[in-house]
């Protein structure tokens, strides 16, 4: 898994590429969110358009990441879910109520 990061409208956008299935990827992702929180960046959009597979560890990391930035008064929003990722996050785990999910990164950024 790779992560690319950019800032759009004061919001950190993290584009995740590859498989989001276990360590070290999930640890790297959560450590990055903790670092952003420590730097005062608590508005985050995660672009999942290039994620091939997401495991329960990946799902848990997204939930934990949302908790991390919400503790700092911010939010973590998801964008560009593939059909497979949508099925895991919304249909199977029923976490649609935990996350604000958007069709595009632009929509998610504007929602802040």
As a whole number of angstroms, the C-alpha radius of gyration is 12 Å
Number of helices: 4
- The beta-strand count equals 5
The CATH class is: Alpha Beta
**Helix content bin:** 40-55%
Low-confidence stretches: none
Q: How would you classify the helix and strand content by structural class? A: alpha/beta
CATH topology: Transcription Regulator spoIIAA
- What oligomeric state do these chains adopt? single chain
> How many separate domains make up the residues?
1
Strand content: 25-35%
Largest sheet geometry: 5 strands, mixed
Strand adjacency order, main sheet = 1-2-3-4-5
Could you give the distance between the termini?
A: 27 Å
3D shape: globular
Give average pLDDT, whole number.
92
CATH second-level architecture: 2-Layer Sandwich
Within CATH, the superfamily carries the name STAS domain
The SSE string, one letter per element, is EEHEHEHEH
Characterise the protein shown here.
With 112 residues, this protein is of the alpha/beta class. It has a single domain, classed as 2-Layer Sandwich (Transcription Regulator spoIIAA). The protein is built from four helices and five strands. The chain has a five-stranded mixed sheet with strand order 1-2-3-4-5, sandwiched between helices.
List keywords for this structure.
about 110 residues, alpha/beta, Transcription Regulator spoIIAA, five-stranded mixed β-sheet, 4 helices, 5 strands, about 35% strand
């Amino acid at each position: 898994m790779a992560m690319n990061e950019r800032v759009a409208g004061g919001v950190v956008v993290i584009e995740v590429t590859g498989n989001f299935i276990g360590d070290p990827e999930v640890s790297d992702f959560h450590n990055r969110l903790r670092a952003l929180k420590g730097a005062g960046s608590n508005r985050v959009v995660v672009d999942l358009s290039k994620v091939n597979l997401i495991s329960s560890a990946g799902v848990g990391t997204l939930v934990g990441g949302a908790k991390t930035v919400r503790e700092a008064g911010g939010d973590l929003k998801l964008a560009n879910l593939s059909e497979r990722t949508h099925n895991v996050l919304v249909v199977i785990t029923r976490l649609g109520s935990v996350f604000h999910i958007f069709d595009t990164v632009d929509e998610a950024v504007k929602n802040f």
